[in-house]
Amino acid sequence: MRLLLITLLLTWGLMAQAQVQAPDLAHLSLREADALLAQKNRELQTARRAVEAAEAATLTAGARPNPNLSLGVGSINPQVGVGAGGLRDKIVDSSIRIDQLVERGNKRELRVSTAKQFEAASGEDLADVLRQQRLVLRGSYYDLLLAQDKVAISADTAELYQRSLQAADLRLKAGDIASSDVARIRVDALRAQNDAGAAEADRRRAQLALAYMIGAERQADVLKATDAWPAAQATAAAELDELIERRPDVRAARSRIEAAGVARDLAKSLRTRDLTLGAQIDHYPANPLFAGGSGAGTGNTLGVFVSVPLFIRYNYEGEIAQAESAYNSANDNLERARAVARSEIARAQSDVTAAAERLARYQDNLLAEAKKSADSAEFAYKNGAIGVMDLLDARRTLRAIQLDAALAQADYAKALAAWQSAVSATQ
Fold this sequence. Notes:
The chain is an alpha+beta fold. It has helices at residues 2-19, 30-40, 42-61, 107-174, 179-213, 240-245, 248-269, 317-382, 388-423, and strands at 68-74, 93-102, 275-284, 299-307.
């Protein structure tokens, strides 16, 4: 199952690329942003490289020791020389030897098992990086949506003040309004223009942040988020312990415990002596100085050898102690991951509940009441029932409520995304 998850995550970018060849960045949906994240996000690419490295380590762990080939010559007499003729007739002793290390104590199987567990942990790490990066992506996307709303609100407010200023100038010429009232309207109009400029700067920053997440920095200035704000929804989910155990960071920590346990067994297996088996062929040619004698050469001879290490001074106590420490550390990391997950889920639940309540107050009451109050002030001012200061106060209140409502919507969207990320194994 875990290897399947790794494969799916590694190929997700290619699948997304096939489905979304060239998304229109000027009309970017969250789904299209997710696809670009899978293709081009740099943090995901780094995590994929770690999975590839873990796969290579598994191949390395499964490799059997290669044999060693030794070639040698001896019994060379510098006074007589090596003699004439072919190589086999030279009056030197030559040998060919092959040595093969034979591992015992299931060392190879334990190495492979350890490497596979680390490979599985790398796959879970990739899933966790994906979960975290998708959360950051949603935050950046909703920041851009909020910035776009602020730009629209600020532009509408600036346009309203500009029209009011033009109308006030005409009324001033007609003697229907005091010059001090025109000055107050002009000050608010200039302030609205400044707010519109600041909103544009905020949008630019949000575009840059989102562009980095999807690898589109060169086209950051054309980015526009088009999705609607997420609607309020229930956040009831499964039992807390179940949510914690299925998170990829917790699964990765469990895989590392299993890897550390096998690595501890591998360290203990070092006390099982490996054998080195050797076979050798020696060639002793006839020496003309000893013709007919016992030194006339014996031709070819065979030999076999067995080498066994002697654990006299050291018995791998350090490796075993280090493996035991790594196993205990892996257990500590699992408990830490569970604690972090529990805290994150609880915090996300609290945040999304509070954000939903705050958003409901704006959508159900505050926005409607502020709009009604502003419309009444506009009507009353046109009919001379209130002064310009009351009108400006009503406009400022409406604009502040609109901006606060947009911020509340963004806060809820981010809190909902954080909750979904905290409780989901695939987010």
